[in-house]
């Protein structure tokens, strides 16, 4: 490792050791940027104008805020630092919005918008998703610039404030500003590592579509003594409809929802990747598609889930047969699934089983496309080599995340190879009370990103 490269890494680590990272993350977490709460819209604007623009301007970027073309979405920001048009250009991404705080559910001594350090953990809403992650990337850029005097490559940035509500408007912004976002590769950070102590690269994501199944048989409920045995029970009928979608061990029964993209090459790429995490729930090895490993089920196959079900009044049941029942469902799907045919295929499937009365009510906008990039891609090799050089570890290489990100905007609309370097772990409680980042992981991530940014600005024959 060259002395100058090590100096940049040491600067990034010193930023952490001297308290800069914790102080800066506390300032970002203090913005209550809950995009799911319309009343918090002013904080979405202020996050960009008060937190991001000064930092980016200080790094030599030219930032500007964009109005969202979708009225459901918050503002966006794009910025660029072009050192030489002939150099490699990297696009990076982050989101400054967070899910609802759930303030009353955090344990005693914690508050979602006050960063709190306890042992290895930094608690706060957004500490892991995604404020801590994009802060790490920007701080590592600063370390490289301070050491080298320049980056040695060009960078463009897009930040959005609506990721937690499905990224409305992001795709249109990518179409409308394709020239301003043009790059050779996307390198960004979101989501978790597979294991907290091993770096991970993932190159795409499953997509998700949520919808309701609704059965309405009559207005109101009727006494179960007077009408039991005479009135059809919508909850029971809906349960039977759901049972046609998956069998008793969770295997998907809708033919069009069974992907054909789990190739031998993909199975080889997934073979040694872990899905079990210390402290996490025990994996049910007998759940899901027969013949697939748990890793293949999580990253190479589709999964169907019933997120919630209601009939009657669950918290205060009465002796009455409900008039309606509803199940909120979700399909997580991989490359090889036609997103435009997901709900039509379900309609055909339910009709074949006689459930014509069960309505399908979409909950999201247009269905997203799943994305994937294989580990043998040149850019993956390059980034993985840099991570290995910094840490001495072989990173886990995951063709696609099991969760969802707006990656199709970059992979399909902008046509970029996409590589995500996550700086969190699966036990971080993102989207839940007590969200936190790990200090040890964050410090290592600062070193990784400083080394990566350094390497991208170094001629290949000089590394």
Automatic annotation (TrEMBL):
Keywords: Hydrolase, Metal-binding, Protease. Pfam families: Peptidase_M20. PANTHER family: BETA-ALA-HIS DIPEPTIDASE, SUCCINYL-DIAMINOPIMELATE DESUCCINYLASE. This is M20 family metallopeptidase. It comes from Paracoccus marcusii. The lineage of its organism: Bacteria, Pseudomonadati, Pseudomonadota, Alphaproteobacteria, Rhodobacterales.
